[in-house]
Design goal:
Number of domains: 1
Order of helices and strands: EHEHEHEHEHEHHHE
Strand content: 15-25%
Strand order of the largest sheet: 3-2-1-4-5-6-7
CATH class: Alpha Beta
Number of helices: 8
Oligomer: single chain
CATH superfamily: NAD(P)-binding Rossmann-like Domain
Shape: globular
Structural class: alpha/beta
Largest sheet: 7 strands, parallel
CATH architecture: 3-Layer(aba) Sandwich
Number of strands: 7
Length: 250
């Protein structure tokens, strides 16, 4: 008597026919998300400040197009969205990074920038993108979990961290039916982390491997998987999703 193994039907890519824009997509989390989105059938558009690095990244993932500009340049940001050739579905913002240092060593401009940087960029992106986005698309913001603890040396980071979840929820109500969500990451092993830590990078990796409940360091691919899931699952909006391997608990 012969038996046959039933074949598993091929899964259709879940972002097929959709367009994903990566603001800060030439390296790290942005680039890895572009790769993941391409695997799910999406067209991807990369932006960044460095045209050479952007060109390399675009070739690596088969990006539809690129645009080199500083996301803090509001005119350039508006021009980028105005010149997009067709509607888009999802936008991930990974540009920018945390500001550390003692509070009393910061002047008024430093404080304003640290508190408003992510919020202002997100608002400008939202303002320019919403008219180009299909209903049910997603604006995905990046924040962190490390700043939730008040600790010597973190300074303004804890305040800036606390601002983002309610900001995300409020923006989700205003942009509906476009969805808005926040990814709160702990340490992620990216080129940005390498630049910030310098010679202490390997020490930090070893410390996390020894202490995190998952027993390994979180990488860009982990965050990219979450970002793409948020894009695919149309029931998600106004929420904050932690991804830190349990770092905040240890």
């Amino acid at each position: 008597m012969s038996s046959t193994t039933p074949s598993t039907p091929a899964r259709e890519p879940e972002l097929l026919g959709q367009t994903v824009v990566l603001i800060g997509g030439s390296a790290g989390i942005g680039l890895e998300t572009a790769r993941r989105a391409r695997d799910e059938g999406a067209d991807v558009i990369l932006t960044g400040r460095d045209p050479d690095r952007l060109a390399e990244a675009a070739q690596e993932v088969g990006a539809q197009r690129t645009a080199a500009f500083d996301v803090n340049d509001t005119a350039a940001l508006a021009r980028f969205f105005q010149e997009l050739p067709k509607p888009i579905d999802h936008v991930l913002i990974t540009a920018g990074g945390p500001r550390y240092g003692p509070l009393l060593e910061m002047d008024a401009d430093d404080v304003r920038e640290a508190l408003s940087d992510h919020v202002v960029v997100a608002l400008e992106v939202a303002r320019n993108a919403v008219g180009r986005m299909r209903a049910g698309g997603t604006l995905v913001l990046m924040g962190g979990t490390g700043g939730r603890r008040i600790a010597q040396g973190l300074g303004i980071v804890s305040v800036a961290t606390a601002v983002l979840p309610p900001f995300t929820a409020a923006l989700a109500l205003e942009l509906a039916p476009v969805r808005v969500n926040l990814i709160a990451a702990g340490f992620v092993d990216t080129p940005l982390s390498a630049r910030l830590l310098g010679d202490r990078l390997e020490e930090r990796r070893n410390q996390l491997r020894a202490t995190l409940p998952i027993g390994r360091v979180v990488g860009p691919a982990d965050v990219a998987a979450l970002a793409v899931h948020i894009m695919i699952n149309t029931a998600l909006t106004g929420a904050t999703y932690d991804i830190d391997g349990g770092q905040q608990f240890v």
